[in-house]
Amino acid sequence: SFFLEVDVTDAQRLREQVSEDPSVVVTMPHVLIKACATALGEVPALNSVMYNDSILVFEEINLGVAVALDDGLVVPVIRNAESMSVFEISDATHDLAVKAREGRLMPDATVGGTFTISVLGRVDGFTPILNTGQTAILGAGRVVEKPVARDGEVAVRQMITLSLTVDHQAVDGAVAAEFLELLQELLESPSDLFR
Asked: How far apart are CA 108 and CA 94, in angstroms?
């Protein structure tokens, strides 16, 4: 697993601004999903699965999003996330989460994921377990205010710890680091994520 602490202060500010409209609810997981979909387009090696000792890289980005239920965990899939706005991602995840909690999720809604995101907002960081066949999974902890050095000054910023678990048969550390660095760039300069 690879860990990186990311400053999401600006992403939180933009997220809160767009959520002032009562009809729009954009959470940090929605922003993370959008950032991951964008980053996977640039680092496609992580958008792959192992199949019969071969690595299959997918053109479409189908993101599995872990949803906690009273009796376990379910991972519904947001299909073609690369072509969705953060607002469309918000609507899709809300719909899937409601169906999952009400037991109305169709079986095909949980298959075909090419990459998974697990958000556990009660801890700072964790190592998620790779889903069978997938090449990578991203874990995101809670957002925490921390003192951070910026331009030679100490400032209080909103930080999140991201962890990336990869299958080293398919992806090496350099590719994992490239993906995390790109994710950091997207989250720390987030205006493109809200278009």
From this structure: 17
- Which is catalytic among the residues 10, 124, 172, 192? 172
Does pLDDT of 159 surpass 90? yes
* Model confidence band, residue 102 (pLDDT cutoffs 50, 70, 90): confident
Instruction: Specify whether 172 is catalytic.
Output: yes
CA-based nearest residue to 43, from 185, 162, 193: 185
Q: What is the dihedral of CA 83, 139, 142, 77, to 10 degrees?
A: 40
Q: Which of 53, 108, 151, 168 is catalytic?
A: 168
- Residue 94 appears among annotated catalytic residues: no
**pLDDT tens per residue, range 5-18:** 999 999 999 999 99
Contact 124, 137 (CB under 8 A): no
Taking every pair of C-alpha atoms in the chain, what is the biggest distance, in angstroms?
53
